[in-house]
Amino acid sequence: MATPKPESAVDTISEYQAGKRPLPYWLLNVPESQWPSRCPAFLTDISPRNLEIINFPEPEFQRLTWPEVQATIKANHIDDFRRAPLDHRNYLCYMARLKKEHGSVMDYVQHQRLKWTDFEAKGSAFEDPEVVGMVAGDIKIIYNDWPYGIDKSIVHLCVWTKFPLDVDEKDPNGDLTPEMRKKIDKYVETTFGSRVPAENIIWFKNWAKLKSIHSMEHFHVMMKDPDIEFIKEITKGDTPACSQLSEDTILE
């Protein structure tokens, strides 16, 4: 089914209440007590994929189990990952706020989340995998602020690097080279495998065409039921942005 074209921001609730139109897409899944009077600015010009995600009925959304997460990544179907509808709506609002308050999402991540003043790597890619955290701050591990719709026993981290993660220029999706995959495999095994069973760890990198921040390198690590003290240690006490919201919060 074709994704409907986003409606104009001037569409109002009164038209729906008068029976002149169906419920606007920007009100779907939102409790009536929290309906805005007009379409929020961050939802007025969204992509078909984003529209499809926020239009999915929240009660029907099923979080992925650990075996499903593993199967998705092993099949390299990472474009199948998506957030729960209301989580994704909050994510879109949050991203719009970051752009308004910080100029760009990249500037926010660099200065507020990573605390990096530059992207100049002190060494080559994963040259010292025995050192957790890496040489002179070339790597930083933090939570994914807005994780995908996965089982809540799964911890979703992002590993940010100052050095490039080489991609295959011939791959239409911009996937990693085999050599870089081997380097990341070794780093993940050394950094996370010492405290988490191998069967409870998996990683992936978004294809170039799926990256939300194109100028900064990172890949994702997911772990099933890890020791929370280890997570605090490896992230230096980091917490994701979404953890600051109650489960029923809807950003506007």
Can you give a write-up of this model?
The structure is a single chain. This protein has 252 residues and is an alpha+beta fold. Helix content is 28%, strand content 10%. The protein has seven helices and four strands. The chain has helices at 13-17, 48-55, 66-74, 85-102, 105-113, 178-191, 228-235, and strands at 139-143, 154-161, 201-204, 217-224. Strands 1-2-4-3 form a four-stranded antiparallel β-sheet, with helices on one face. Helix 2 packs across helix 4. The longest helix has 18 residues, at 85-102. The protein is globular. The model has no long low-confidence stretch (mean pLDDT 87).
What do the pLDDT scores average to? 87
| N-end to C-end Cα span | 29 Å
Q: Provide the succession of SSEs.
A: HHHHHEEHEEH
Shape: globular
Q: Report the structural category.
A: alpha+beta
For the biggest sheet, the summary is:
4 strands, antiparallel
Indicate the percent of residues in helices.
25-40%
Q: What is the number of helical segments per DSSP (H or I, 4+ residues)?
A: 7
Number of strands: 4
Strand content: 5-15%
Give the C-alpha Rg. 20 Å
Low-confidence stretches: none
Strand order of the largest sheet: 1-2-4-3
